User: Fold these one by one.
Assistant:
Number 1:
Amino acid sequence: MIGDLMKPKVAFFDFTSCEGCQLTVVDSLQTHVDLLDAVEIVQFREAMTEKGEDYAIAFVEGSISRASDEARLRRIREQAAIVVALGACAHLGGINAIRNAQPLDDVRKYVYGDKADWYETYPARPISAVVKVDAVIPGCPIDRDEFIGVVKALLLGKKPPLPDYPVCVECKRKENVCVFHKGGFCLGPVIRAGCGAICPTCGDGCEGCRGLIPNPNQDSMSDVLVKYGLTVADMLARWTMFGTYQQMEAGS
Amino acid sequence: MSNININIEVHHVTRVEGHGNIVVNAKNGVLEECRLEIVETPRFFEAMLRGRPYTESSHITSRICGICAVGHATASLRATENALGIEPSEQTVLLRKLNFHGEILDSHVLHIYMLVAPDLLGVGSVIPLVQIAPEVVLRALRIKKLAGDLCAALCGRHTHPIAMAVGGFTHYPTTDELLALRARLVDARADMDATVALAKTLPWPAFTRETEYIALRKEDEYAFIDGTVTTTDGGRYPISDYRKVTNERLVTHSTAKHTAHKRESYMVGALARFNVNHDQLHPRAKAAAAELGLTPLCTNPFLNTAAQVVEMIHSIEDAIQLIDQLVARGIRPEPLPAFPGKAGEGFGACEVPRGILFHNYPDAGDAGAGV
C-alpha cells in the first residue's frame, strides 16, 4: 500500500500553524537518529532544501484557513497513500478556530482595519474538513514518543494505535493530586490520553488539545463538576481553547 | 549602465520557519523589484484573546511560534502582570531567566547547525551531514537536547510551555534536576568551543549593509526579558512607547507587517543585541566574539549567526550562574497571586531568539485579555 515498505518516502507539509509539531519531529531525532534509516524524507521545507513529489506518507501540520490552500492539500491527498494529521491544528482546528466564534468581518477588521481585504481568510478548519485523513497524531504539540510509535505502526502496515481512555488514567498512574481537588479546572476526564498527563503533572489542568475520547463518560464528568461546584458551561468554556470547531459543528 | 538582467523567484524559501518567497528583478543593471513575500496565512491572535480569561493569554499566544514559544509566553505574562499591577517574586524572575536561556540555546543551535550550516557546507539539509560529519550532527543534537531538557525541567516542555503562569510557576525543578543540568551545561562548554571552531571555518559572505539595530537594554545585564528599547541610531524608549519605534504598516505582498524607525527599516535579533549590548556579555562570550572577528558595530547581516554562537556561550554561562543562585537560596513553592480586582493596559517585551517582541493588552479586564 505504501510502496517500498522497507523504506517508504515521507513528506512533511504545513498550513496555518506554529510549526511546533514539525519541530517536535526534528527533536525526536535526538533520541531516534535511526528514524532516518527507516524512512526517506523527500520533502520537509522547514528542515531541508531538496523537494521530492513521490512521497507515500504525508504528515500535514496546520489548519485550513483560506480557500487558496485547499488545492495544495488536495494535491497532497492525491499523491499520498497515507495522510496523517500532525497535531491539534490539523486534527481539530485547534487554537486557530477560537476566532470562528466571532463574526469573520469583525475579526478581520480588528486586526487589519481598513486593509482587511488584503489578506485572504475564512474560518479555520481541521484538514479532515477538506480531505480524507488516514491517521491522527493528536496534541499541541504532538508527543515525541507517540510520533515515533505512529511511524513504527505505519511501517508495519498497521493502523496507529491511540489510547481510547481519558487523561485521568495517566494522571492517576503518575500519582498526581487531582487538579479539581487543588481548586483548578481540568478536562482530563473526557480528553484522550497519550500525553502522559503532562499538563496536570506540571500543575495545570488539561486544556483538551488531544480531543475528546470516543465515548466520554458524561455521568462521571457531571459528578465531578457537581462535587466541585462547577457547571457544564464552565467545562465547555474551557474546551473552546482547542474545541471551538467541534462545539460549533455540534451546535449547527 | 551595465546590461545585467536578473530574474530570481524563490517560491518558498526552505530551512526557515514559515512560508516566504523572494523576488528579485533587475533590468540593464537597474533594480526593479526586490521583495520578501511572507505568504503565511494571517492568524488573528489579537482577536482570539478577546473575552477570554487573562490566565489563558500566555498559553494561547505561545502558539504563535513553535520555536520561540517560551519567549511569547514570557512577553505575554509580563504584559498581563503589567496590566494587573503584579510584580513577580525574585524566585520567579530567576526561574524565568533560566527558562529563557533554554529557549535561546534551543533556537540558536537549530538555526546555526540545521538551518544555516548546510548552506555554507554545500548540502541541502542536516541529513547528509549525518553521513559526512556525524560528530557535528551529534553535537548539535546534544546541545539541542540539553536546551529542551532545561525548558522541560522549568516549564514542562519548550513547545508549548505549561508551568509558566501569571505571577509565577505551577511546577518547580528539584535541586537534583538543576544540578544535573548544571553538569551538562559545564560539559557544553567543550561543545561550544567546537562550535566556535566550526563557525570560524564557515565561508561567511563578505557583505556589509549599514542599518539601524534595535534591542532591549538593561543597565545591569545582557537583556532578554524587560528593559529599555534602545537603538544604535540614538534613542531610548520605555516599552510602553514601543509604537514610536515599530511604526507598523501593512503591505499587500506580505501578511507580515513592516516596521521602520529612523530609516527605511531596522534589524533585530542576535546581531542587533550584540551591537547594542556587547559590553554586558559574559567574558567567555566576549572572547568567542573576538575569536570570530565580531566587533561592534558589525554591519554584516550574515554574521547574525556568529552573534548567535556568542549568545549561546553567554546563555550557558548565565544559566550556570542562575542555577548556582537558585540552589543556594533554595526553591520554594509560591502561591500564584489572586486577581487584584482591576486591570488597565499592559505592556511586555522580551528579546526572543530572532528579535525584540512586544505584547500589548489594552484591557486585561477580569475576564477578557484583549490585545
Number 2:
Amino acid sequence: MSALSRDDVAHVAMLARIQLSEAELDRLAGQLDQIVGWVGQVNEVAAADVPPTSHPLPLTNVTRPDEVRPSLAVEQALAAAPMAQEQRFAVPRILDED
Amino acid sequence: MSTRTRTAETVVPFEEVMRRFDPVMGLEVHVELNTATKMFCGCATEFGAEPNTQVCPVCLGLPGALPVVNHAAVESAIRIGLALNCEIASWCRFARKNYFYPDMPKNFQTSQYDEPIAFGGYLDVEHDDGAGGTEVFRVGIERAHMEEDTGKSLHVGGSTGRIHGADYSLVDYNRAGIPLIEIVTTPLTGAGERAPEIAKAYVSALRDLLKALGVSDVRMEQGSMRCDANVSLRAKVSDDPASVEQAAVPLGTRTETKNVNSLRSVERAVRYEITRHAAVLDSGSPITQETRHWHEDTGVTTSGRPKSDADDYRYFPEPDLVPVAPTREDVERLRATLPEPPQERRKRLQADWGYSDLEMRDVVNAGALEVIEDTVAAGATPAAARKWWTGELARRANSEGVEVTAMGVTPAHVAELDGLVRDGRLNDSMARQVLEGVLAGEGGPAEVADARGLELVQDDGALEAAVDKVIAAHPDVADKIRDGKVQAAGALIGQVMKEMRGQADAAKARALILERLGVS
C-alpha cells in the first residue's frame, strides 16, 4: 500500500502554494510515493542503536560571538524586490492579521 | 473574504460568570532579547532604525545564506530558563516552522518545536488577596524556547487603513531575526475569580524578572515584550477553584487573544474573554477555537481566524544548524550569574529602608524601586528618596504622561537636593522650587539654588530680630503660648517666615519663639 496518498500530495501542494493540475497530481503522487518508499529503506538498515539525525556532521554548539557585522546597504537589500516603497518591501495585501 | 463586524458581542457580567464557571488560562509571552545582534546573523538590533537598514542575506532569506547561532542569545535563554526554575535541555535543536506570510522572507520561522531549551519550571506570583494582604500563586512554566522575531508590516490603502481592505503591505525586516524567547505557561487552573488579576500579576512578575536578569528591555509599549492570552471556561463544581473535584472537570474550548501589549490590557482581555465565553456558552453555541484580536480602545476582542488546515506548520529539524548542547558546567556557571529574585529583593529593600507595606506597594506600583535604590546609594535618606520620587516627581510624570525617570531629574539630583535640605540650606518649599529649576533644565540643585538665590538665612541675628518683631506685634498670641497653648506658635511661625520672605528654617523659628516666650 502506498505511504503517500493523492490527497496528501494535494494538501502539501496547497500548503506550499503550488498549483497542480489533476494530471500533475496523478503523476507526482506516484513519484513522491516511490521516493518516500526509497527513503523509508533507511529504517530497515537503522537498528535501535542508531539515533535519528538531522545533520550529517557530528557537531554541537556552533555559535558566533554577539558582535555586530555590517548589514546590506538599503539599496542592495531592496534590489531584488519586485516592488519597494518607502524603503520597504511592497507585497500583495495580507489577509490574516497575525 | 469575510467581512468582520466590530460591534461588541454579548457578555455576561463577570460576577455572574464566576458563580457558574471556572476559568482556565494559558499565557504565552514573547520577549525580545537585548543582544547586540540578531539570532542567526550579525545584523544590529537597534530599535527604531530606518527601515531595512539592519538586514543581510541571512535574515532576508536569500539563497545560499547560512545562519549561525548567537552565543549570547543561547546564554540568555538558559538564564531565563534557570530563573524560571526550569530544567535545561542537555541537547536540543532548532526547527523550521513553515508558513507563507511575508513577515518572514524565508517562508519559515526558525524556532524550536519538541525540544525546547528550557522546560518544566514555575514562577511564584504575588497578587492582592482582596483583603489587604498578598497571596502567592504558582504559575507553571511548560517551556521556554528560542526563536526569531518577524518583520513589521505596514498596511496601505483600503478604506480603513487597517489590514482588511488594504491594497498592499509594506514590510520592514529590521526586526526579522531578532532573538525571541517564547515562554509558555501550563494551563493555569485554580485561579477562580482572581484569574484576570493573576494574569496581570504574572506578566508583571515576569517582566520584573527579565529586567533583573538584564536580558531584555521588556518594554511592552515598544513590543519587546508581548503577551498572547488563552482563555477557556468549564463548569464550576466547587467553591474552591483549586479543589480536586474542580480539577477533574475537562477543559473547555479555548480562544487565543493575540498581542495584548500592556499589563492593564492583559487583565482586561482575560476578563473580557471570560465574560464573552460565558455568553456564547449560555446561548447554547460551542466556543470556536480561534485567534482573537484585542482592541485597546474599546476593550473588546474580535474574531481573527479559525484554526485551519493552513496551520499545518510542517515543523522539521533545521538542517542548517547543529544542535545546542549546553554542558552541565555551562549551566552551573550561568546559574551563578542569576540575580537576587525580585520578590526577595523587594523584601530586603523594604526592611533596609524601613518602609511600611503600603509605602512599599506605592513605590512598586510607581515603578520607582530602582530609582529610589540609586538615590539612596547616592546619599539620600530612604524617606526623602521615596517622598520625592513617589510624590512631586510621580505627579509630574503622571500629568505629562512620561516615565518618572524620563524627566531629566536623576537620582544624583534628588540626593543632592536632600543633602541641601538636611544641611539646613533649603526648606521644603524652597526645595520644591529648586526641583522646578532642575526640571526646567537650569542645572543641578546647588546650581539652581544659587542662580535663583534660594538659601535659608543662616544669620541668626536676622531671625531673632524677626521673631522679636512678630512677638511684639501679636501680644495676644504670645500670651496664649506663655499660658501653654504651644500650638498657637504656628501662627507666629507663619508671620516670621513672611518677615524672612520664606528664606528661614521653620523649625529654628519655632524653637526661637518658644525660647523667647519661656516655654521651651
